[in-house]
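One record is given unchanged without comment:
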Amino acid sequence: MTAESEARPGITVDAVRELLSDPKIFAELPPGLDDDAELALDSLGLVWFLHQLELRYGLEIEPAEAFLAEFTSIRRITDYLVDAHES
């Protein structure tokens, strides 16, 4: 682990939920939404979400990558981002 990655905040389910709660991504993300509940990010929301990830965590993820179709729940998004964040 590098000093840079140690200085960045960790990606957690709560952090992903907070990012998804941005009105530009989900105008009304239910606060009690289960971590495994199905989500559908539209293309503009996805681009804004990825932009926020880059600003907050330094993660650069291209919106055209195939795995993004798997961004279907808070838990699946978090699991992917934790793997990406640690590499």
User: Anything to note?
Assistant: The mean pLDDT is 83. The first helix runs from residue 3 to 7. The two ends are 9 Å apart (CA to CA).
